[in-house]
Amino acid sequence: MTGAMTAALETQGLCKNFGALQVARDITFALPVGARHALIGPNGAGKTTFINLLTGVLRPNAGRIRLDGSDVTGLGQAARVKRGIARTFQITSLFNGLTVADNVALAVAERRGVAWDMLRPATAHRAIREEAVALLESLQIAGTAHRQVRELPYGQRRLVEIALALALKPRVLLLDEPAAGIPTHESGIILDVIATLPSDIAILIIEHDMDVVFRFAERITVLVSGAILIEGTPGEIADDPRVREVYLGESVHV
Question: What's the rounded Cα separation, in Å, for the pair 236 and 90?
Answer without folding.
Answer: 27
